[in-house]
Amino acid sequence: xxxxxxxxxxxxxxxxxxxxxxxxxxxxxxxxxxxxxxxxxxxxxxxxxxxxxxxxxxxxxxxxxxxxxxxxxxxxxxxxxxxxxxxxxxxxxxxxxxxxxxxxxxxxxxxxxxxxxxxxxxxxxxxxxxxxxxxxxxxxxxxxxxxxxxxxxxxxxxxxxxxxxxxxxxxxxxxxxxxxxxxxxxxxxxxxxxxxxxxxxxxxxxxxxxxxxxxxxxxxxxxxxxxxxxxxxxxxxxxxxxxxxxxxxxxxxxxxxxxxxxxxxxxxxxxxxxxxxxxxxxxxxxxxxxxxxxxxxxxxxxxxxxxxxxxxxxxxxxxxxxxxxxxxxxxxxxxxxxxxxxxxxxxxxxxxxxxxxxxxxxxxxxxxxxxxxxxxxxxxxxxxxxxxxxxxxxxxxxxxxxxxxxxxxxxxxxxxxxxxxxxxxxxxxxxxxxxxxxxxxxxxxxxxxxxxxxxxxxxxxxxxxxxxxxxxxxxxxxxxxxxxxxxxxxxxxxxxxxxxxxxxxx
Amino acid sequence: xxxxxxxxxxxxxxxxxxxxxxxxxxxxxxxxxxxxxxxxxxxxxxxxxxxxxxxxxxxxxxxxxxxxxxxxxxxxxxxxxxxxxxxxxxxxxxxxxxxxxxxxxxxxxxxxxxxxxxxxxxxxxxxxxxxxxxxxxxxxxxxxxxxxxxxxxxxxxxxxxxxxxxxxxxxxxxxxxxxxxxxxxxxxxxxxxxxxxxxxxxxxxxxxxxxxxxxxxxxxxxxxxxxxxxxxxxxxxxxxxxxxxxxxxxxxxxxxxxxxxxxxxxxxxxxxxxxxxxxxxxxxxxxxxxxxxxxxxxxxxxxxxxxx
Lengths: 506, 308
Description:
The complex is a heterodimer of chains A (506) and B (308). Chain A is of the alpha/beta class and 506 residues long. Chain A has helices at 29-44, 64-79, 86-93, 105-118, 135-144, 169-182, 198-208, 239-264, 273-285, 424-427, 435-445, 454-473, 490-498; strands spanning 19-24, 52-58, 95-99, 123-128, 156-161, 188-190, 222-230, 300-306, 308-310, 313-315, 333-339, 349-355, 362-369, 389-395, 399-407, 415-423, 481-483. In chain A, helix 1 packs across helix 11 and helix 9 (273-285) packs parallel to helix 12 (454-473). Chain A is globular, with a radius of gyration of 24 Å. In chain B, the strands form two sheets. An eight-stranded mixed sheet of chain B has the order 1-4-5-3-2-6-7-8, sandwiched between helices. Chain B has a six-stranded mixed sheet with strand order 10-9-11-12-13-14, covered by helices on one side. In chain B, strand 11 and strand 12 (245-250) form a beta hairpin. In chain B, helix 2 packs across helix 10 and helix 9 (201-214) packs across helix 11 (295-304). The longest helix of chain B has 15 residues, at 21-35. At the A-B interface, strand 9 and strand 16 of A face helix 3 of B.
């Protein structure tokens, strides 16, 4: 956060200093769907500095005007904004475009000249919205062109790197080395859009700003934790990427590990970026290896969707999707059982699952508490009462729910579980900002709290990579399948059943 | 292609695409909230069955949707894209292929509310898949469907009941009252003969199973179950052991039951008791008020196998 003491107690939220946002991949999907709409919304909310510009960079042969058309189309399609909208028009006037090959040093000379021309007297934020294979190239070229270092005091240079950050531990380390050759760690913002979601940020507030939850946030009271990230979509147009990634790399290594670390972390000593990230790192380091080094056994289930019925329509199986090898063993679903070797969590399993072509799009963290020690209502309620549950809804309906037992109204003593719900959509009025708005703004402000640090990324890969190695060493054969529109394969249910537990029905 | 929706199912329904159901419901709810603020949803009720059994269920549910349930009505067919309508808190899907019943329910149930499935018939395979998504399953299948064979498996993870069982609640309570008489209770192990007459032989089997399991007379109780077409599901129940005879008989008005007991060879009084509201909506309302596993029902179903 800015160290300016005059910011303390200000009612207005901090606004970044003069900034130029340089988007590599200016005509790509991410830019059109997320980045440009986020910039528009920040602008409409008066959260951007007066001296703000966007420079689009891509291989496409287009000029400033064509990039303005990209902006207008993006805002119309993904933000419902008409061309005559004054904010959109103002934004369009502040847009520039630089085209060329990413490996060509001349591109960066032209970019440097454009930045000088804009002369924002502030900072430049480079956003790498490009295929991961190009990250190294662009970072090396930025460094070679002198764009990674600020020219003078008051100027700054930062880089936002999209996931996936590497494809395994080795490539992640290699990429970190390249990045650190040109940028200091405080200049690097590894983005995970889950961390920009209100509920995820609220998780820290929920835990550390309330006196009632933290005392029970441990092995004495918590039975287990389930983290689910389900998508209804299939591989869509990402087959080329997804075939080489799979659910473990695409979702678990980043999003689910971040959620896990936020649930499991110890309280930070202060709400500062380093303190929070240190405690998250501790949590991740306490996770037991996913592959037993001695036996090679793993508690990870993988599967691939077959044909089925989702969102009201018949859908094909993964193997016949366009761009997918029909003999592919890429996993579209993965379920894991994790054990944390820490004083707080010893003996409390964390179950993670994620998949494509699930019945509904939802991400939630469910914390199931232990049952009361004595079931005094057993006579009136012959089966056990439902255990208390704390549910953190990450998407689509961001909020927190608590399940507890209540007496049903009437003359008899009958028990039933009830929910107490808090929803961001209705609790505070106004609209909840999109994750990319929050994260872009934080990067402009230089606040890395909600971004992944290099050691976290490497520790996460260190957990995941042995699982991939095990899968690779297994004989090529059939991967379990699940019907599209169902909650995953029977093997995932069996994994829970071995512990006497079930996945939550969402 | 979608077919024309059945107007009787959801008279004020608005056609929507499946993927738009949630946003359509949210929109309808916002409008409804202006009219009736403060109503919270308390459960999701899924009704699944063949088309001819759904209209009646939809009518029964209309009263319940006014007290805050999300209702999902699903009729079977062979349409890859079933006709979808929404109205207030109700969704109707017509013509869904039975094998995708669980896919549709998995997408439409609310994880924050208990889900009750009201099963009005269909393939037993689909039933078991659907039950895995429910907190409570209420069977109400056509006669001749052997859905009870699945009860013990389903009950491992989902509370199960049957509307036949719900209809028997008063009959069971009245039979239980007889056993408040000390002599009857003491004679319980000796009851050997049960006669039941009525139009629904499945209800008779269930009642017999309940008596056999609760009195621990499995294999020893001889049941004479007689089907009487056109009568009430249960018309008469007589349990006897020679000295004791306990009788429950539907009164002529069809809304009350006459009870009569002969204890140690002597009449022990009789009374007439209302059967209560036996309409579908009332029966379902009763089921909604119970959330726990019904072990008595499970035992009755298991014991009913001995009676044909």
